[in-house]
Amino acid sequence: MNHLAHTLLAGDDEDLRLGGMLGDFVRGRPDPALWALRVVDGIRLHRAIDVYTDTHPEVLAAKASLPPPYRRYAGILLDMWFDHCLARDFLRWSARPLPEYSVALRALLWRQDALLTPALRRFRGYMEANDLPAGYADRAVLGRALAGIGQRLSRANPLDSALPVLVAQEEELQRCFEVFFPQLQGFVQEWVNRAGS
Fold it and tell me: Model's pTM, two decimal places?
């Protein structure tokens, strides 16, 4: 899952949401001297969501359905596409409208600026320039994001041409998302309950 899903799944807890954003920008064991324990929990939750997603049968089947050479990058492609699914039907999954949610998430990152890694500060600028995460509802923004990720990878890759491949499989990927995401929500609720006890 990508940033929109990670923060939405963290619920109303701002520390968990911040940890959800930090999850892609922190390597190794998160240092409790740098962040509050609940922020560390958010980083851990981000990682638990990634493991759950990467091993879910529906996601594995969706990855296998992508043709070479895209299959090698299926994890990235599906994470981004699932945020697209979430964004374009956001009111189904959240009581808050997506534009409002998006502005509030960026405001959280500004309020907690001192806790951000340099890479997340740079990404916040990208978020603002592209109205993310709300922008993920727009296929053109999604296509540019995939191309940008591809440029940052060290080896040649087909991410800049992946959007039409995803669109061609839209119906099946939507079906996968519809089955998978509610189960992920249940997993997260159990994880949060265990972490809070």
Answer: 0.94
Q: What pLDDT does residue 1 have? A: 84
pLDDT tens digits, residue range 143-168? Answer: 999 999 999 998 999 999 999 999 99
What's phi and psi for 40, nearest 5 deg? -60, -40
